[in-house]
Write a structure and sequence with these properties.
Layout (H helix, E strand, L loop, with lengths): L1 H8 L7 H17 L28 E6 L4 E4 L2 E5 L7 H14 L4 E6 L6 H12 L4 E6 L3
Parallel strand pairs: 1-4, 4-5
Antiparallel strand pairs: 1-2, 2-3
Helix pairs in contact: 3-4
């Protein structure tokens, strides 16, 4: 019975010192590794002021080359020949040279090809643009 009384009288104690040490170590770790953010009000930003209108807002002059399935080529609605009959397309080249001299280097050419057209016709139009030294060419497929 004495042994049983001894067991009941023993008081278990938990030593809190290691737990407090670990808590402080974790607190120090999180304080050191946390990045401090600057408030947005302190960040400096350079905002654009009023300036003169720039050239990129102006629409660029453009021409449209349309290629039909039979190889006929139209530039800005005017018939310029058939790509299958003459792959050089001299009329297209002359027209583009004239338009480029009017509008300058910012001149854009859009080539609209019918999906059923032979691949030679758009290549002939691209060659004509290259011969006229057009720098901005946009080949497109016309949707049906």
């Amino acid at each position: 019975m004495d042994t049983f009384k001894k067991i009941l009288d023993d008081v278990d104690e938990v030593d809190l010192t290691p737990m407090i040490d670990v808590t402080f170590l974790l607190l120090i770790y999180f304080m050191v590794t946390t990045m401090i953010k600057q408030p947005e009000a302190e960040l400096s930003a350079i905002l654009p002021g009023k300036s003169a209108p720039s050239s990129y807002n102006k629409p660029k002059p453009e021409s449209h080359i349309e290629i039909e399935p039979d190889g006929s080529v139209r530039v800005d609605g005017n018939y310029m020949g058939n790509a299958f009959e003459n792959l050089d397309l001299p009329d297209v080249k002359q027209y583009l040279l004239g338009e480029k001299s009017k509008h300058g280097e910012d001149f854009v050419v859009h080539i609209w090809t019918d999906p059923l057209a032979n691949w030679q016709a758009p290549l002939a139009a691209l060659n004509a643009c290259g011969a006229a030294k057009i720098k901005s060419v946009s080949p497109n497929m016309r949707r049906k």
